[in-house]
C-alpha cells in the first residue's frame, strides 16, 4: 500500500485529493492546522499539526513536518497560509512569506532526507500576472507582480518563489518534483476555470510518473493558457465541465 501525505489536506482541493487517494486504496496522512471538511475522518486518518498556531505550527514547525513525512512515498503540497477564507489580509505580508517559505523549506528538507519518491506542489496561474493578454504556456515570462485578481500580486509572487524553491531541490538534490500552475478552481454551483475533480485527476495522473519529474504544468480550462504540455507529456486533457454565464462552452 502506497502512503501519501497531503499538506493542506483540509482545504478545498486538498480534501478532495484525500478522498480520491482513499478511493484508490492509498494510506493517507494529513498535515494541516485544522480538520476542515475532513472532520469525519479525524478518527480514521493520521492528522499532524491540527490546532497549532497558524504562523508557528503546521508546516512551519519542523518537528511536526518530520513526523508527518516519515515513511511516506509521496508528498502533495497544497498548503498556503493566506487567509483564503476572507481575503481580508489580517496577517502582514512579511509574516505570510515567512511561514509559507519556511514551511516549504521544511517539507522539502524532510522529503529529501526521507527519500520521498515524489513531491507535487500546487502553484497558481497567478504567477503569470495578467494572463488575459494572450495565449501563454509554461515557458511564458512570469510577472506575478502584475497579477490583478484577489488576493493581490503578493500572492502570485509567493507562489512563484515557492515553486522555484521546489525546482531547486529537483536540480540540486534530484528530489522528484512536479509543479502545477492551477487556474481558478470551482465546484458546482459556483463557476471558475477548471473543475476541482479535474485538478485532482491531474495530481493522480502525474503521481510517480518519471516524465512528470522536474516539470511545470498548467492546469486550467482558461483559453488564454495552453494545456499542450500536459497533454503531450502525460497524455491527458482536462474535461471542460461547465457552461459560462454567457452560454459559451
If you had to describe this structure to a student in words, what would you say it looks like?
- This protein has 249 residues and is α/β, with parallel strands linked by helices.
- The chain has a single domain, classed as 3-Layer(aba) Sandwich (Rossmann fold).
- Helices cover 32% and strands 16% of the residues.
- It is built from 6 helices and 9 strands; from the N terminus they run E-H-E-E-H-E-H-E-H-E-E-E-H-E-H.
- The strands form 2 sheets. A 7-stranded parallel beta sheet has the order 3-2-1-4-5-6-9, with helices on both faces.
- Helix 1 links the parallel strand 1 and strand 2 (27-31).
- The protein is globular and about 45 Å long.
- Residues 241-249 have low confidence and may be disordered.
As residue ranges, the low-confidence spans are 241-249
Cα gyration radius (Å): 17 Å
Indicate the structural class.
Answer: alpha/beta
Average pLDDT, to the nearest integer?
88
Globular, elongated, flat, extended or rod-shaped: what is the shape? globular
Our count of helices gives: 6
CATH homologous superfamily placement: NAD(P)-binding Rossmann-like Domain
The largest sheet, given as strand count, sense and whether it forms a barrel, is: 7 strands, parallel
Return the CATH class: Alpha Beta
Helix content: 25-40%
How many E-type strands? 9
Termini separation comes to 40 Å
In sequence order, what are the helices and strands, one letter per element? EHEEHEHEHEEEHEH
In the residues, how many domains can be counted? 1
Give the strand content: 15-25%
CATH topology: Rossmann fold
Strand order of the largest sheet: 3-2-1-4-5-6-9
Instruction: Write the CATH architecture name.
Output: 3-Layer(aba) Sandwich
Amino acid at each position: 500500500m502506497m502512503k501519501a501525505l497531503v499538506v493542506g489536506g483540509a482545504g478545498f482541493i486538498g480534501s478532495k485529493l484525500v478522498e480520491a487517494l482513499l478511493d484508490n486504496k492509498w494510506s493517507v496522512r494529513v498535515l494541516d492546522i485544522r480538520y476542515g471538511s475532513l472532520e469525519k475522518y479525524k478518527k480514521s486518518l493520521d492528522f499532524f499539526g491540527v490546532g497549532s498556531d497558524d504562523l508557528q505550527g503546521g508546516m512551519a514547525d519542523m518537528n511536526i513536518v518530520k513526523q508527518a513525512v516519515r515513511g511516506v512515498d509521496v508528498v502533495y503540497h497544497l498548503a498556503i497560509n493566506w487567509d483564503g477564507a476572507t481575503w481580508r489580509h489580517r496577517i502582514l505580508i512579511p509574516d505570510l512569506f515567512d511561514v509559507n517559505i519556511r514551511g516549504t523549506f521544511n517539507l522539502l528538507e524532510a522529503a529529501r532526507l526521507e527519500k520521498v519518491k515524489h513531491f507535487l506542489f500546487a502553484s497558481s496561474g497567478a504567477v503569470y500576472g495578467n494572463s488575459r493578454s494572450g495565449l501563454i504556456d509554461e515557458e511564458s515570462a512570469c510577472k506575478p507582480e502584475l497579477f490583478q485578481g484577489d488576493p493581490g500580486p503578493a500572492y502570485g509572487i509567493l507562489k512563484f518563489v515557492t515553486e522555484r524553491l521546489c525546482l531547486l531541490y529537483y536540480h540540486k538534490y534530484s528530489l522528484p518534483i512536479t509543479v502545477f500552475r492551477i487556474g481558478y478552481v470551482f465546484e458546482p454551483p459556483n463557476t471558475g476555470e477548471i473543475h476541482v475533480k479535474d485538478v485532482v485527476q491531474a495530481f493522480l495522473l502525474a503521481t510517480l510518473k518519471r516524465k512528470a519529474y522536474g516539470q511545470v504544468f498548467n492546469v486550467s480550462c482558461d483559453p488564454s493558457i495552453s494545456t499542450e504540455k500536459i497533454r503531450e507529456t502525460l497524455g491527458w486533457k482536462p474535461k471542460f465541465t461547465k457552461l459560462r454565464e454567457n452560454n459559451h462552452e
